[in-house]
Design brief:
Blueprint: E1 4-8, H1 14-26, E2 31-35, H2 42-54, E3 59-65, H3 70-77, E4 82-87, H4 95-102, E5 111-112, H5 118-130, H6 134-165
The structure holds 5-O-phosphono-beta-D-ribofuranose.
Length: 166
């Protein structure tokens, strides 16, 4: 069963949204990737959301740039959690998308991450799924431990370099 939907408004968003797919692969979570636009293919987008929810999908990550209405339109079409990723593109470099995605009207929430932060969107989706999945909770703890170990290793390397330079 597909748990996560990774949707984007254009193929120009793909290089960023692939970061979300990499996290899903890392945590062995089944996902579907889709290009569908809130403006250019509205009905197709809503049809996809309805199909995704019907077949048991649990969370949707939606990325879009410029007047980024995709995450909000998807959130309006279903009651599964939607995580929005503002994509840096166009004259305003993603600030437009950030404001469009984060400023949802009361009643229709979208959990918005930083500009181009598809990786954080994916980790948030994993945390949502982990609420009812002990394996994922364990994997998330290991992921955090590895990050902490990486920082310590980098600091050790820096301290060695500073000592050698004296
Ligand atoms: C948005 O407009 C897309 O999400 C994309 O970030 C941006 C530009 O789309 P393209 O003109 O590259 O297809 O709808």
């Amino acid at each position: 069963m597909v748990s996560v939907g990774i949707v984007m408004g254009s193929d120009s968003d793909l290089t960023i949204m692939e970061d979300a797919a990499k996290i899903m692969d890392q945590f062995s979570i089944s996902y579907e990737m889709k290009i569908s636009s809130a403006h250019r293919t509205l009905k197709r987008t809503v049809d996809w959301v309805e199909g995704f929810v019907q077949q048991g999908g649990k969370v949707i990550i939606a990325g879009a740039g410029m007047a980024a209405h995709l995450p909000g339109v998807i959130a309006g079409a279903c009651v599964v959690p939607v995580i929005g990723v503002p994509i840096k593109s166009g004259a305003l470099d993603g600030i437009d998308a950030l404001y469009a995605i984060v400023q949802m009207p009361p009643g229709i929430p979208v959990a918005t991450v930083g500009i181009n932060s598809a990786r954080n969107a994916a980790l948030l989706a994993v945390e949502m799924l982990a609420m009812a999945d002990a394996r994922l909770q364990e994997e998330l703890l290991k992921y955090r431990q590895k990050m902490a170990a990486d920082v310590e290793a980098k600091d050790n390397a820096l301290q060695d370099k500073l000592k050698a330079a004296k």
